[in-house]
Amino acid sequence: MKFSFKSFFSINPASLTICSVLLVVILFWVGTPILDLIELKTYDLRFLSRGRLQPTNAVVMAVIDEKSLDTEGRWPWPRTKLATLVDILSKDGAKVIAFDIGFLEPDENSELGFINKFGKEIHNLDIRNDKLADFITASRKNADNDLALAKAIKNSSATVVLGYFFHMREADLEYQIDQKEIDRQLHRISPSKYPFIIYEDPDMQPLPFIKAYAPESNLEIFSQATDASGFFSVAADPDGVVRWMPLIIQCGEDLFPALALSCVYNYFDRPQLMVRVASYGVEGIQIGGGFIPTDESGQILINYLGPPKTFHHISISDILHGKVARGTFQDKIVLVGATAMGTHDLRATPFSPLYPGIEIHATVIDNILTQDFLTKPKWSRIYDLLAIILLGAITGIALPRLGALKGLLLATGLFFLHIFIARWLFVHTNVWLNVVYPLLAVAITYTALTVYHYMTEERERKKIKGAFRHYVAPIVIDEMLKEPGRLKLGGEEKILTVLFCDLQGFTGYSERFTPHEMIAMLSDYFEKMTEQVFAYQGTLKEYVGDEMMAIFGAPLEQTDHAQRACSAALAMRDRLNKLRAEWASMGRPPLRARTGVNSGPMLVGNLGSQYRFAYGALGDHVNLGSRLEGLNKAYGTEILIGENTAQLVEDSFFLREVDQVRVKGRVQPVQIYELVGNSGDSLPKEMKQAFSHFAAGLEAYRQQHWQEAIELFTQCLTLLPEDGPARTMAERCQIYQQTPPPTDWDGVFTMTTKE
């Protein structure tokens, strides 16, 4: 497949291949939700194709399953049962006991409420009996289920790790948490925060961590019983599947670890623990001699080992009733949590849509203990880009040289080859490489070249149409393609709006810049301005030197042609301001433009001769539009519109009446207005006051009260020193003070030049 720079701008196999690959590269770089979702599904399929792996025997799960609910009653149970569970696990030699359960509220099953009520009633009845008082006090202690569990936690030979969760966003809550309560909750979990954070760049801002609004910690009685805790908050991908586990969440000024990491930390007898932050984000977590790689925000890809019950499940009812062999929990991390359907702690994972949340934490613990991590390394993004380019290029180079069947076989072979490579690397090296985008490059390139092969006539038609668009507005082309009969001489009279825009002093830059630079600047300017005209469905008439003309309301009927023209004029002004800032850094001159807009009856159509004709408009109001553009120079304005246009748009835009003038070559005077902005724009207070002074000054000027008008225009200039109309009118009043106009003066200023 031969390729040249010129061929890139035509439709051929080379340009189609390049554009297809470039499109996929852009989609990959910016991220496309639907494609990213498909990629997540292929990621899940890689787990299923890999099959089940054997977990470490260091993790055991004590679960609230259906059997436990049938035996012990509905959940939640009295916390004395959990206290008994902690005692049994501790006596059996468990190293760490972790609760994937939050003890956020007092135990509702406790008899403490009744005893307190009974004691209060005895007090109210003024019954004084020391033995009765001692009995109530002792009963109160024995009936406090929360106290019983707290004692079991505190006295446990195993380290008990409590779970809690974070409210991630304030907006997600239906109530407000005051700062004192947030601080109180943070204080409860503060003993478990990360002790060290190592920054490659100490001044790094913003910090890359996932941020939470407030923690929902365990009751104070439990937080005091153990200083080990970790959050069990997990977040699902857009499709609802849990693939990542955050190991770090920032709340307030501190960083807090996940429940799984806190379990491992205590299982290893609390070695050195630190978060390493590189310049691009979180690098990973150092725990003793091991290292946990994370993404930039501190999340780990969960390397799922298999479907539910891959880890050893033991029913809590069996533990409580002594049906578990001694030594089962010796030196183990025991996770306590729910797996029963009614407990609502089931998540979607690559292996199953109903996967116990507790087993997700067990999986992460296993990943850390075995240092068996799934990764999406930084070089994988480069590999994915190269795969997109390489597969697309091979398809584009080979396909034009092959027949239909061989081309299909080639594309199919490349398709499955990349799937095989991505799966092999996933299974054998635990690396996640993108499948969807490289395959999309093959599919799009194959489709584009196939369509090109069978639709050359359509390609030529589009090529001609594309070339024609360089000369007239796209909307005109579409109309002509629909009705070729309109390509004839002549026209029709319609009420339209014309827009003229001219660069101020552009030719003066020819001494400083070469012709090539001048043309480049002018082309860049015209391109940006034409985009604004087309955005409001205007028809570009022509470029003459550094001036451009556009028509609104033809060839398509537009009842709001005046509004469209004014909107385009404001958009052109705003775009020129941005362009001026861009050019300043390039050493180009600060361009300023003058724009005139006028509405009225005009002759519009294809005008010219049988040898050459062009779409355009003629008439007195077209000429007036050109004169209005020139009047900007006299009044120091950017956009002036005629009275006809002002009447059509006065409710949609903020206008300022500037003067009443008689332009050269026209007897009838016209009121001119400055187009300031959209009616919904918020104008500065000083500008509103200045415009009010100007309006009063204009009225005094027309009454020939020259000194009053000068004072009002001067007040306007005090507020807006750069206001051109105020300066022009003040100077004119000073002249009229010295040389008054004729006695029959009608307030119209006659222009003697075209400006």
Task: Describe this structure as you would to a colleague.
With 755 residues, the chain is an alpha/beta fold. It has four domains: 6-31 and 376-457; 59-370, no CATH class; 480-617 and 638-681, Nucleotide cyclase, GGDEF domain (Alpha-Beta Plaits); 682-755. The protein has 24 helices and 27 strands. Strands 19, 20, 21, 22, 23, 24, 25, 26 and 27 form a nine-stranded mixed β-sheet that branches. Strands 1, 2, 3, 6, 7, 15 and 16 form a seven-stranded mixed β-sheet that branches. The protein has a four-stranded mixed β-sheet with strand order 4-11-12-13, with no helix packed on it. A hairpin with a 7-residue loop joins β17 (346-347) and β18 (355-356). The model is unreliable at 1-8 and 485-489 (pLDDT under 50).
Averaged pLDDT: 85
The counted number of beta strands is: 27
Question: CA-to-CA gap between the ends?
Answer: 57 Å
Q: How large a portion of the residues is in β-strands, by DSSP E?
A: 15-25%
* Molecular shape: elongated
- In DSSP terms (H or I, runs of 4 or more residues), the helix count works out at 24
**Strand-pairing-aware structural class:** alpha/beta
User: Major sheet: size, sense and barrel closure?
Assistant: 9 strands, mixed
